[in-house]
Amino acid sequence: MLFQTTEFLLFFFALIAVLVFARTNKTRKIVFLVFSCFFYMWWNPIFILLILFTVSFDYWISLQIFKSDSTQKKRNWLLLSIIINLSVLAWFKYANFLQDNIISIASFFDKKPNWTTFNIILPVGISFYTFEAISYNIDVYRKDLEPPKSLLDFITFVTFFPKLVAGPIVRPAEFLPQMKEVPKINFNSTAIFLILNGLVKKIVIADNLGIFVDAIYQNAHNYPSILIVIAAVAFSFQIYCDFSGYTDIAIGIASILGYQFNTNFNKPYFAISPSDFWKRWHISLSSWLRDYLYKPLGGNKKGSFFTYRNLMITMLLGGLWHGASWNFMIWGFLHGFIQIIYRLFNIDLILEKNKLMKFISFVLFQIFVIFTWIVFRITNLTQLKFICKKVIFFDFNFSIASIGLGKLQFFSTIGIMITFLIVHIISYKIGGLYKYISARHYTIQIAFLFIAILLLQIFWPTHEAPFIYFQF
Amino acid sequence: MIVFVVIATIAIYQFLIPVVYSHIPNDFSRTKIVLNVLDKKNKTYKPSTVILGNSIVMNCINTKLLAQKINLDTNSVYNLSTTGQNFNESVLFYPLIKNKATVKHIIQFIYLSNFICQDSIEDSRVDNLLMYGYKKNDESKYLLQNFYSNEFNQSKFIINWKSRKIISGFINNEFRNILRKDLNIKSKESLYFPSVYTKRVPDEAYQKLIQKFNPTHPITVYQEDSSIINLIKRASSFCKKNNIEFTLVFSPVNPALNAYTDTLKQQIMNRFNQPDLNQINVINCMNLVSEPDFIDHVHPNPKVAKSIADEISTKFKSKH
Known about the structure:
The complex is a heterodimer of chains A (472) and B (320). Chain A is mainly α and 472 residues long. Chain A is 70% helix and 0% strand. In chain A, helix 14 (326-344) runs antiparallel to helix 16 (355-377). The two termini of chain A are 16 Å apart. The model of chain A has no long low-confidence stretch (mean pLDDT 90). Chain B has a five-stranded parallel sheet with strand order 2-1-3-4-5, with helices on both faces. Chain B has 15 helices and five strands. Chain B is globular.
C-alpha cells in the first residue's frame, strides 16, 4: 500500500477512527499491530509470517541475552541472533544474485549447473526491519537497552507501518521508551505540512522527473551525452525527493499517531565532503552502519590502514545493503574510495580553514555524487559501461531539438529541476520550509495548503510509481 | 479546516481545468477546431467535402489545390485531419458531419499499419474529445462497436482529473515549438493545409526512426483484421444512408519502411475487389511518394501535396 493512494487514505482514517475508541496504551498497541500487519499484507500476505517469526525469535533471544550471567553466553546468543537474521536476509535478498554469479562463472568455463534455478521474491522492507532487529539485540547485549516487558511492544515497534517498508531505520532505544506512554493522536500543523512536503517531493518532483529519467536510461543509445548528463542530474533530484519524501510522510504520520522519529535527511546536496554527505543522507542507515559495523570493526582507532579498510568494508556493505547487484557494490566502492581520498589528504581539515576550497570541494564532490547516482540507477553492467563512457567522453552533440523533447517531457523536467533547486535553497536558508510554514499565521498556512494541493492535482502523474526504496 | 481546504481546492480545480483545457494550446488542440467546424449551429463554416486522417494528411493534403483540380469551391473543401487521428477516431466525427447538412463527401485517409492492425482509441484521445465538448451518441457507438472505449462512460469528474497533464503538456509543447524553427506551428490552425513539418530531420535521427518503425520482418502475407474491415463497411454504409459520398484513401508510405512489401500493399488493394468491399471508392496513394520526399519515417514533405492532389483528382474524374 503506497502512501499516496486512496487505499492508504481510507486505511489511515479507519485507523484513526478505531484509535478514538482504543483509549488504553495496550489496546492502542494492539490496534497499531493489527493495522500494521494489514498494511504489510496488502502487498503479499504470506510474508507477514516471516516478520512475525523474526521478531518473536529476536525478542526471545534478547531475553536470553539479558538473562545470561556470563559475557560468553551473551555473546553466543547475540551471535546466533545475527547469524539467523543475516541468513534470512541473505536468502531472500542475495541468493538470486549468488546463483546468477555462479551460473555466469560456470558458463565461462563451459559448465552448466544442473540445479533448478530458484526465483526468490524479495519481501518488502526486509533490509529495514532486519537491521532494526539486529541493532535491538546488540543494544541489549551492550546493556544500552533493556528488553521490553512484553513481546507486544517489540512486535509493534518492528511492524509499525509508517517505517516498516522503507524506513527510516528506527533505533529501538529511541522508540521503545516512547511506547511506555499512551500515544496521543495529534493532527499538528508541523506533521501535516511535513506530510504535504513529502507528497509534493514525491509526486510533483520525483515522479515527474522519473518519466524523463526512465525514458533516457531505457534507450540511452539514442541520446547524446548532454541528455544523459541532464538525466543523471534529474535522477539525483528524483532519488532524493522520492526517498526523503517517503521519510517526510512516514515521520509526519508517526507524529500524528503520537510517536517521534529522528530526521533521516538533512539537505545532503549541500554537503561539502563525503563525511558531511553521510551525516546528511539516509542518516538512519549511515549512523547504523557507523555504530554497528564501522566502530565494531575498529573505526579509526587502529591506524590509517585499518581506518581505510574499515571505511571500505562499511561502504561496500552499505552498497550491498541496497540490493544484490554489482552496481550497488561499485556505488559503495566509489563512496568508500572518495572517503579514503579525503582522509588520506586530510581534506576535511583544509576545508575548515579555507572558504574557497570549501566551495571547490562542494562543487567537485556534488559532481561526484551525481556520477555515482548513475552507477546506482543502472543495474545492467553493459548499459552502465555505455552510459559512463557517454558521460566521461562527452560527445558535444547539442542538436537535440528534433529528437522528441516534448514527448520526453524535457522542458517540464528542466522547469521542475530549477524550481526544486530554488525552493530547496530557500528551505535551506530558512531551516526547513515545512517548519517555517507551520509556524506562520493560520491564513498563510491555508494559502500554502491550497497551493500544495493544487500542485499535487496538476502534477500527479498518470502512472502510479512506487517509492524507489521499496525495492531495498 | 484542512478537509474544507482540500475539498475547496478540488472543487476549484474541477471548475478551472475545463476552462484551462479549452484555452491553452496542446498537441491535440486541433480537435477543438474540428469540433467547432462540424458544430451544426455554427453557420460560419460550410464545408462540402471534409478530409479526415492523421498528421500525414495534415502534412500532404492541400485542399485548396485539390478543390481547384476537382472543380469545387476552394473554400469548401476542409482538411480536418489531426495529429494521431486514426480511422476509428475519425468515424466519431461522422454523426456530426451527418448533422452538418452542407457536407456531401468524406475523404477518409487510412495508414497501412492501421489497416493491418488497429487498437481501440487511446483513453487520452477520448478524454481530449470529451474535454473539447464531444458528445457520444448511439450512432458513434454503433460506428465504433469493437473500438468503442468505456472511457466515454467516465464521469466528468474523472475526465477532468485525468486531463491534468494538459499543463505539463502545454509547457513541453510550447518550449519545443520555440526550439523547433523547422516546425510551421501557425499552420496547425489551418482548415486547408495544416502542414506542420517542413524540413527533413537530420540523417542520423531519420535512420533511427526508420529502424524503429520498420517491422522486424518483411510482411508478405496480408492477414485480415476483421474489426477494421467491418469499421470500413459501417462507415461506408453510414455515409450511403445519409447521402454522403465516401472515399477511402491509403496514405503514402515511406519506401524506406521496406518491411511493408509491395506484395502486401497489392494484397490489400485486391481485398477491395471482393464483393463485400468493391462498392467502396478506394484510392491508393501508398507508393506515390519517393523516399527523398519524406521528412521523417511517415510524414511526406508538404511539397508532395500537388502530386497527391493530382492522383486524387484523376481518380475522381475517372469515377464521375
